[in-house]
């Protein structure tokens, strides 16, 4: 009887230990609940905070839909959908697709163009006529059916960064991704580690890596203020786009342990 009791205790202890280990593993947190825009804020150029002009952002069929059906001319009314809280060290993933035709009056460069804004300013700090938040943009692009066009590029509204030990002030630069034509779903991820490193991935493959994200410098300086954290937002840039998933893993507790961080990231990317 004692042996059986002892064995049962050992099995229970092992089960509890494994459950504890499982609970300590980083997991994806869904920022979009698939039902509504709870926990998100809207800022559209020339409109006050949380004025969802012409129902630009909505949820239908389990997707965040960015649409312009109720617009006349787009008129540079760029919009952003902000998550409610900032992050500093994290891995974020979005699954997106471009659909339909561009809104009337949209810029030529904005065809099949959207973005995921990282380390951004808060929506309430934007001016009424500000087009983009100061941020690092992971630019999301779709192909036109024939030409090559990379996605998960970098653009820098109000910011700059370091690539190969050189400060880059050029507004946009391409990644090494493939081109994605048509209305197919694409998964893009960004690893953001405070002010040290940002890495872009497309369908699990690394396509761009850079360091030291920072604000544009002032008073003739070469370097700007380093960005250690900030808002996350999805872009409305005149072409209809769907987001079916927006999820994040907070990596704060691993950010100072490169070995563990590498292991965690590899495991998370492998699952998707």
UniProtKB/TrEMBL annotation:
Stretch forming the signal peptide:
1-19
Is RNA-binding tagged as a keyword? Answer: no
Q: Where is the 3-keto-alpha-glucoside-1,2-lyase/3-keto-2-hydroxy-glucal hydratase domain?
A: 27-248
A Gene Ontology molecular function term for this protein is: hydrolase activity
Family annotation (Gene3D superfamilies): Exo-inulinase, domain 1
Q: Please state what the protein is called.
A: 3-keto-alpha-glucoside-1,2-lyase/3-keto-2-hydroxy-glucal hydratase domain-containing protein
Question: Does the keyword field hold Signal?
Answer: yes
The cross-references to InterPro entries, in alphabetical order and at most eight, read: AL/BT2_dom
UniProt keyword list: Signal
An example Pfam family from this entry, by short name, is 3keto-disac_hyd
